[in-house]
Give the backbone structure.
Amino acid sequence: MGVKELSQRLIYYKRRDVQEAIVKSAGDREVGFRYGNNGFGKRPDILMYPNDVISLVKKGVTSFHISEEIWADPMQLTPGMRRGELNELRKGWDLVLDIDFPNWVFSKLTAHFFIQALKKHGLSAITCKFSGNKGFHIGVPFQAFPQKIGNTLLKDWFPEGPQKITQYLLDYISTKFVKTNKDKIVFDNKYEYSLPELAKLLDIDVSTLTYRSRCNKCGKLRNRGYKSEYEYVCSKCETRKRLLENKKILICEKCSTIMNRYKHIKTKCECGSSDFEEILEFNPFSVIQIDTLLISSRHMFRSPYSLHEKSGLVSVVIDPGEVMNFEKEQAHPEKITIREDRDFLKWKEAQEGEAKNLVFRAMEYKPKLSKEKKDTPELNFETVDTALPVELFPPCITRILKGLTDGRKRSLFILLNFLSSVGWGYKQIEELLSEWNMKNTEPLREVLIKGHIRYHKQRKKKVFPPNCRSYYEDFQVCIPDNLCNNIKNPVTYSKRKAFSLNKPKKKRARLTEEQKEMRRKHRETLKNKK
């Protein structure tokens, strides 16, 4: 940490209005203090007095974080508390949508969509703040929600409530605000892009923006095709070629060897059908996305007016109607003006029950792809008893273990389920995750990793990671190889690879006279050319 950076941080946090704004946001919430790259301090903790802010900064605190949940007494929180104990201590929760998209234009656009969607459902108490780096936090205070729906106390509907509401809003936005007009993708009837323009803007391949096939039985859309392919592999130089055409013999162009042929069986849909059609249709979830896995018990978000370590910018509260006009330059510490009438989650007095319609819609919402978890035979495989080595891990897991810039929390969820399913013990898992975390551009909090491991232990039931491939393609860790095309889950990849290594090798089949003759003629042709 440079002297200049420390000096600028001290100057900013010495401001009395900044101290008061941070303390005001921390009322009845658990507070986390981050010490730069060293992670977070001991939890739980609270923040009560403005002078404590600058005292903590002098001790090395770089930013302040607060919980989504509102507690009767945050200091009574302990690791490993049961759900009933948490419900008894919890007074309520705020809906905080954490939007963090790599592209700045679409980060603003996604935030704008969520704000408009909330307004369409009758909400007025909507607040918004810049996250301090690449995204936004959109908040709806707990006062806007009804206290009870049927026999369910809304304060106890956590984290399922916010997760369900977020999933419903994502689906609502994808159908109401994103339209296809001929060869153009139209967002909110204002912003138009062709697929190539959109791919160039986001710096990704066009194929990641589209669905490529539709099941004619259940109507499910997939972002990959189903056509059968033939792969030809040279046994000497390992040159590979993929063709739709079935050729009996294919000669390697490098070493003139007859290549081995492998047929990739046409993939079936999760409903069991092989009846599908190839399409090219825009997938709105490729650009409008939010990670519901981040909504979990005792999850925290950056406090309003706290600095961001990486960017040096302030998590400033902004007018929800001005999201599209907001630029990062407005969040420089020296440009910040704090208005008393503009508090995140307390800007407007919420009318109790104004979010009732939203809650009912979310409760009734059933995702169209809900069958995906049931009809997957691969999830019925038993997990292995002996820990499979890293060398047998699939490409997606190998890529994640090299460290990431985005998708770290999703990856933590994937790695925990994958490693426990391939025979790794929790001590091994914790060591590997700790090593992996240090490779990330911005390491996760150590307490977050340990909390996930503790929760995983308590469940006692091993669950496979998400199936291939769309989940992994979303944050660009899907790098399929030959074996990937024949499996549906990363765990299956490692098990099949282990099985093939332990399987006795068969003797290589001899070439027929016809094949020998063709090889001889091919070599003569090459000699004549030379």
In short: The mean pLDDT is 83.
